Amino acid sequence: MRVTVAVFLLLTVFSLSETVRFPGLDLLISDCIEECEELDYCLDQGLSKSGKGCFVRNCKSVFKQCLQKFPETALSHVNHFAALAEQWIGVAVDKIADVYLHCWHNSQYQNVTLLSDCLLDAIFEAAQVPLTELGEAVFTDPAYMSCWIFQSLKQIIHCYINIDNGYWRAIEVNTDNELQHNVYEYLMCSQIKSMTAKECQDVWNRIVGTPEFVKQQTKDLMICQVHAIISATAQC
After folding, report:
1. CA distance 218 to 6
2. Spatial separation of the C-alpha atoms in residues 63 and 69, rounded to whole Å
3. 59, 93 in Cβ contact below 8 A?
4. Which of 77, 152, 163, 208 is 20 to 30 Å from 224 by CA-CA measure?
């Protein structure tokens, strides 16, 4: 479950939404961080190393609270591992928050690639132990599965890093349209048990297959993920 939480957060981080102060963070998380009373004081000094250092010292607890909200929502859909998640989630979120703040503090602000590489390297290094624990708890061949999960996730997340902002904006617009005009269908098809149902195909085609450039990038993303899984299988 730590793996599920980490993936959820990482995909949020690497959606690369347009934010001013926190590159790569979802807008909802960025808005939540604004609740830190010292934020403006610190970052009005500019996005210098000293300004970021001020934020890390004064706003770390708020930052972690904001990240905490997201996996808690995700976990409501994975009851099978709920007990395991309850035990691990605080540690996972706490570590991810520390990693982001470390990389954000020390990376060049405008270079999202450097920030992304820093995040991936640090998080997957930290994830080695929980991935092994997950393998031992669930699979008959824990060493193989720990390797496979680690390699798959690392490569799959790299698939998302290079997706441009226009893709995510188009999907956001498409999703808003579904909520306005087909809310019942959208909510039904958003449930995990219904996502792959034949009657939901049109919903997902409208969201991730319109317009043509979104359809193409969705295909490229799926191919990239399949290649990641094949590569992980070969490596392990």
Report:
1. 22
2. 11
3. no
4. 77
Dihedral angle of Cα 191, 193, 198, 200, to the nearest 10 degrees: 0
DSSP 34: T
Instruction: With a cut of 50, list the residues of the chain below it in pLDDT.
Output: 1-9, 11-20, 74-85
Same domain flag for 215 and 105: no
Q: Is 158 among the domain residues?
A: no
Cβ atoms within 10 Å, residue 26: 21
* Shared domain check, 105 and 24: yes
pTM confidence score: 0.55
Q: Residue 204 class from Cβ within 10 Å (0-12 exposed, 13-18 middle, 19+ buried)?
A: middle
CB burial class (10 A; 0-12, 13-18, 19+) of residue 23?
buried
pLDDT tens per residue, range 158-175? 787 777 778 888 988 998
d(CA 30, CA 27): 5
Amino acid 5: pLDDT: 45
Out of 93, 111, 142, a domain closes at: 142
Q: Can you tell me the distance from the alpha carbon of 26 to that of 12, in angstroms, rounded to the nearest whole number?
A: 6
Residues 99 and 187 in one domain: no
Q: Which residues contact 106 (CB under 8 A, 6 or more apart)?
A: 49, 118
Query: For the range 118-121, what are the long-range contacts, defined as Cβ-Cβ under 8 Å and sequence gap of 24 or more?
Result: 119/10, 119/13, 119/24, 120/10, 120/154, 120/157, 120/158
Question: What's the angle, vertex CA 195, arms to CA 190 and CA 197, rounded to 5?
Answer: 130
